[in-house]
Write a structure and sequence with these properties.
The chain has about 220 residues and is an alpha+beta fold. Helices cover about 35% and strands about 20% of the residues.
Length: about 220
């Protein structure tokens, strides 16, 4: 099987996302570059139930020099969100794994006239600021371009209005951590605002925490 180890990592990640309730049904998708070739990407297939999937069911796509993508292996066509995943990977050579979910609380926090998501606990600081992307049709080059802009040169996460969340990492562990902690950030935000006691961390504390995380000194 081509790129078996990368396919296994993608499969394990999508099943973890399903187990944690970050993905329902066939929504959401996960991708990862292969270590053999940074232009080869393993990505979850389109419209196939993740439960019962095998590594061989994961699609393989090649990112071409002309900016197009070619499905080169796998029995099922790749996710329709290939443009979004590959656009980010092209813009960010440091990103090797990408996770897109339709997680509930992140989606809620992307709505409204002036949406924003701020950390409430220290671990959440690593993944802020969280960019916000206006609604654009899924699977389009337009949403791919907007996600690239929102993620920027150093960002880890953005929320897409009426759609979900997109997270990145230097490896799958990093991308999944960004997804999990951002959804936690969104959930605590929604609950706190509902209870009327919303109080995000002070900006000064967020910056100090980010410095500790960057220096690998976080508790």
């Amino acid at each position: 099987m081509l790129y078996e180890e990368t396919r296994k990592v993608v499969l394990e990640a999508i099943l973890e996302a399903v187990e944690q309730g970050l993905i329902n049904g066939t929504s959401g998708n996960i991708a990862m570059r292969t270590p053999e070739n940074p232009n080869i990407v393993a990505i979850t297939p389109s419209g196939i139930s993740y439960t019962g999937m095998t590594p061989g069911d994961i699609a393989i796509v090649e990112m071409k020099e002309d900016g197009t993508n070619e499905w080169i292996d796998g029995p099922y066509k790749p996710s329709s969100e290939v443009p979004m995943h590959t656009a980010v990977m092209r813009a960010r050579p440091d990103v090797n794994a990408t996770v897109h979910t339709h997680s509930m609380y992140a989606t809620i926090c992307a709505m409204g006239e002036n949406p924003e998501l701020k950390p409430i606990t220290p671990p959440q600081c690593e993944f802020t600021p969280v960019g916000i992307v206006s609604f654009t049709m899924p699977g389009s080059n337009d949403v791919a371009d907007k996600v690239v802009e929102a993620i920027g040169e150093k960002g880890r996460v953005c929320l897409i209005k009426n759609h979900g969340m997109f997270s990145v990492g230097k490896n799958m562990k990093g991308a999944m951590h960004a997804t999990v902690y951002t959804e936690e950030m969104a959930q605590t935000t929604v609950i706190a605002k509902t209870l009327g006691n919303y109080e995000p961390m002070p900006e000064e504390a967020v910056l100090k925490m980010q410095a500790l995380i960057a220096a690998d000194q976080a508790v």
